[in-house]
Amino acid sequence: MSEVPESCLYTKDHEWLRLEDDGSVTVGITDHAQEALGELVFVELPEAGAGLGVGDACAVIESVKAASDIYCPVAGEVTEANASLTEEPELVNSSPYGDGWVFRLRPEDAKALDQMMDAESYGRFLAEVED
Amino acid sequence: MTEPLIFEYSSASRQGFVADSDARPNLLAEVLRTDELMLPSASELEVVRHYTRLSQQNFSIDTQFYPLGSCTMKYNPRVCNRLAMLPQFLGRHPLGPVEHGQGYLQTMFELQEMLQVATGMAAVSLTPMAGAQGEFAGVAMIRAYHESRGDEARNQIIVPDAAHGTNPATATMCGCEVVEIPTREDGDLDIDRLRAVAGSNTAGIMLTNPSTLGLFERQIEEIAAIIHAAGGLLYYDGANLNAILGKTLPGDMGFDVIHMNLHKTFSTPHGGGGPGSGAVGVTERLKPFLPVPFVQKVDGRYTWATEEQYPQSIGRLSAFMGNAGVLLRAYVYMRMLGRTGMERVSDFAVLNANYLMVCLREAGFEVAFPERRASHEFIVSLKQIARETGVTAMDFAKALLDYGFHAPTTYFPLLVPECLLIEPTESESRRSLDGFVAAMAKIRDAAYSDPDTVKQAPLTMPVRRLDDVHAAKQPDLVWQSAESGQRKG
């Protein structure tokens, strides 16, 4: 069973979100997602300053198996992307919730986070899909 | 043992060919090369042995069962190649006057007509050089059609999530927006979602039928009705044409445009990036937009159709008309098979796939859509084995090499986890299919008794597990001599 930290919120597309102290939201892909994708070879990041709507394809992660889009889970403006993934995409594999974060954004409306799954519901969702 | 590169055999003292140093090309002195050509220098025998050994280390349809799903790696009869290589074809210059090439033009005209009949289309152009270019031509024609009617708001192409990755790529390249439609659990398209998204922005839909799940889309007539009622057109991706050859026609299903991979279904060896052919067929209303040139017959004389005659054509896709060798092989193959022969192709392609699917299921493997009959290919999911043993679809693919089988397609389609997409093709005997089932069962047993060994496979090949992450991130494709550090490729 893959790791699902309590500190994050989750989407059905296997992305995680974490509300930071400064009000920004960090986004990455879950342990389950990185495991399903296999070793990553390339990450295409969004640009800081980009305005994103819910469901916008905003990053691309490519593994030896497949290339997949990351969909923006909440509307907002990108404040930072994890530049170290350009050289070391494998950080997403080794530390999906830590050094492997993908981008940060300032949400238009922090209430949008209420729509996300908490660790417990995501865990149940995973149990269903992994079944 | 790995075979050294031809450069590593090189030695100044050995030569297989001596150039005539007195022959001076008629070129200006400043463009003539003065330094040495950096070519390997080896004897004829060394060259022969090198390339023979390389060919022996390769998997090929001539030596192994090659069930690479969605690729139709079937046997290509030698006679097709032999006739395509007749000196009268090889020696024809593409710029020669049509009066000097009436025989070639006639063959191409007849090939166009045979493909029309085989797909239920009104006209065919053979000019696209490969499948991707055929797709591009198809969607470009759909756009041109809408634009000619002043219907310019139609910029959405609907693509099911089971589609080949090339479909959304093609739509994007043609300046369209891709609208993805999910697949239902039974493997058919989610028709309610289709109804919801089809509308005044719909340019068309791209479908492969049977789909990449190896299933025939049962609602195809309803899908066609929905798209046509919305004002859109239907594009048929011919990648899986081998499954329906002689049985049903894309034209009868309601498709308006189709591309055919002649290199896949009609007898050209492929998979090595060699020349292909993505011939396109269209119904009456798309005829004015066909890419030129194609062959027309006027008063018993064959000529090339031009932009002047077809001003609405999407234009030219290459300097001449497609890859002549591939087109000629397709012509010979179709003439040889005839109408009934083509039916036997799909009969046996589908029979072999279903036989193999049932045998694997009886051997205990999980099939992705057990309640459905397979078309020409089917999916095995190794999810449970992977969860229980850690041995993945990729490990199975590598282990199959040790048993003398080329691996099936792995991890595609993306909808099914830990999947193998298996396409046996019509050319295989029951014996080779049974051998494949036995190998799969042995690997499965080994996964439970000795998973570490399976994860090290292949054990008997010239190279073991390749570092595909390293290869993807830092591809090293050019030979560099150790002493000079100089690039010589």
Q: Considering residues with a beta carbon less than 8 A from a beta carbon on another chain, report the largest interface and each chain's count.
A: A-B, 10 and 10 residues
Low-confidence stretches of chain B: none
Summarize the helix and strand pattern of chain A as letters: EEEHEEEEEHHEH
> C-alpha Rg of chain A, in Å?
14 Å
The SS-based structural class of chain A is alpha+beta
Please identify which CATH superfamily of chain A we are dealing with: RNA polymerase II/Efflux pump adaptor protein, barrel-sandwich hybrid domain
What is the tally of helical segments of chain A? Answer: 4
How would you describe this structure to a colleague?
The complex is a heterodimer of chains A (131) and B (489). Chain A is 21% helix and 32% strand. With 131 residues, chain A is α+β, with helices and mostly antiparallel strands. In chain A, the strands form two sheets. Chain A has a six-stranded antiparallel beta sheet. Chain A has a three-stranded antiparallel beta sheet with strand order 4-6-7. In chain A, β6 and β7 (67-71) form a beta hairpin. Chain A is globular and about 35 Å long. Chain A starts with 8 loop residues before the first strand and ends with a helix. The model of chain A has no long low-confidence stretch (mean pLDDT 92). By secondary structure, chain B is of the alpha/beta class. Chain B has three domains: 6-56, no CATH class; 79-337, Type I PLP-dependent aspartate aminotransferase-like (Major domain) (Aspartate Aminotransferase, domain 2), CATH 3.40.640.10; 344-473, Aspartate Aminotransferase, domain 1 (Alpha-Beta Complex), CATH 3.90.1150.10. Chain B has 16 helices and 13 strands. Chain B has helices spanning 44-56, 78-84, 87-90, 102-119, 131-148, 166-173, 191-197, 220-229, 250-253, 262-265, 324-362, 383-389, 393-402, 430-449, 451-456, 468-473; strands at 123-125, 156-160, 177-181, 202-207, 233-237, 257-259, 280-282, 295-298, 301-304, 366-367, 378-381, 409-410, 419-422. The longest helix of chain B has 39 residues, at 324-362. Chain B is globular.
